[in-house]
Design goal:
The N terminus is likely disordered. This protein has a single domain, classed as Rhopdopsin 7-helix transmembrane proteins. The protein contains 11 helices and 6 strands. A hairpin with a 7-residue loop joins strand 1 and strand 2. It is globular and about 60 Å long. A 3-stranded antiparallel beta sheet has the order 2-1-5, with no helix packed on it. It has a 3-stranded mixed beta sheet with strand order 4-3-6. It is mainly alpha-helical. It is a multi-pass membrane protein.
């Protein structure tokens, strides 16, 4: 069965996908179906409680980071300014997928409208790319702090910090809209079932009955650019950072310098490791179950762990959190 989607005409159902499709008013189709993590009825209460708890921990943890940074004047520095924006992006990234999945588990409904699917995909790519761009900006901040400490306050001035955050947002928005444009041009699909708990653009392309080789090339090229450039920036920054740290004569000096980068490196490895695995895995050897597990890691687990990674390894954040909690208490 083939499904045709068109914005100006009704939606039609077709038995096959010939080179020329003549519209026939057979069956109206206006939504996709998400398979979710499991169809087992006994697992639904467990999944509901688990992901609701993880979502609340993610939102609360990242919100505490934002409130602690904004309320403590000692943390009004470029590094913590970027960290608070990363926390906001993580809240948006998680909120794009998890509330919908929780509602689906509770209502036993896996349907999502076509426009809802495009909207979810757009926001998912926007906040996901924003995460990657901000991690790159934070790597540049560590490079300037360690390699050019005497000029740090001059280079990382408030105007540059604001510009870097805005640049990250607009690059992410461009990436999101390019993906949205490519997917919105698809007119017919082989199936309406997506093997995930959110609308994955690569799966939508795989379900298209028309030739999507050009779209695939464009999408993976855009994804490679939006992924390769930030990763290159992070590698270059840390190459310079490590080279500079190794020239420090004292062991304590080396440890102190490395400790300022440990949290950021942990988050980079966790985020990019799973994201690249999903991206390459779907292109080389599609496996819905493996893709779904990796998707859970980078859409839920990584944003949830970020506040713990930064707060547990950072004395300033821990002190600011305690002061904030004491004031509110």
């Amino acid at each position: 069965p083939i499904y045709l989607i068109h914005f100006s005409n009704p939606l039609f159902f077709f038995r096959r996908c010939p080179s020329y499709i003549e519209p026939q008013n057979l069956t109206r189709v206006s939504e996709f179906f998400l398979t979710g993590l499991s169809d087992d009825p006994e697992l639904q209460p467990l999944l509901f409680g688990l992901f609701l708890s993880m979502y609340l921990v993610t939102v609360l943890g990242n919100l505490l980071i934002v409130l602690a940074v904004s309320s403590d004047s000692h943390l009004h520095t470029p590094m913590y300014f970027f960290l608070s924006n990363l926390s906001l992006a993580d809240i948006g990234f998680t909120s794009t997928t998890i509330p919908k999945m929780i509602v689906d588990i509770q209502t036993q409904s896996r349907a999502i409208s076509y426009m809802g699917c495009l909207t979810q995909m757009s926001f998912l790519i926007l906040f996901g790319c924003m995460d990657g761009m901000l991690l790159t900006v934070m790597a540049y901040d560590r490079f300037v702090a360690i390699c050019h400490p005497l000029h740090y306050s001059v280079i990382m001035n408030p105007h540059l910090c604001g510009f870097l955050v805005l640049l990250s947002f607009f690059v992410s928005l461009l990436d999101s809209q390019l993906h949205n444009l490519i997917v919105s041009k698809l007119t017919c699909f082989k199936d309406m079932e997506l093997s995930n708990f959110f609308c994955d653009p690569s799966q939508l392309l795989n379900l298209a009955c028309s030739d999507t080789s050009t779209n695939n090339i464009v999408m993976y090229f855009v994804g490679a650019i939006s992924g390769f450039l930030p990763i290159s920036g992070i590698f270059f920054s840390y190459y310079k950072v490590v080279s500079s740290i190794l020239r420090v004569p004292s062991t304590d000096g080396k440890y102190k310098a490395f400790s300022t980068c440990g949290s950021h490196l942990s988050v980079v490895c966790l985020f990019y490791g799973t994201a690249i695995g999903v991206y390459l895995g779907s292109a080389l050897s599609p496996s819905p179950r493996k893709d779904m597990v990796a998707s859970v890691v980078y859409t839920i687990v990584t944003p949830m762990l970020n506040p713990f990674i930064y707060s547990l390894r950072n004395r300033d954040i821990k002190s600011a959190l305690w002061r904030f909690l004491r004031r509110t208490g």
